[in-house]
Description:
Helix content is 66%, strand content 0%.
Amino acid sequence: MENGEENKNKRPYRMRGVAFPKAKYGVYLSIGLILLVLIILYKDSIL
Length: 47
């Protein structure tokens, strides 16, 4: 029973060496990209 639970928590073989960034950085990046696109699209209205 314990072996099955340990296997669920392990990453797949090919993904073990990949370092995943923290989720908060993805949130910051997506907000930044959205703001950048909106500024580019609506720069005439803002200025």
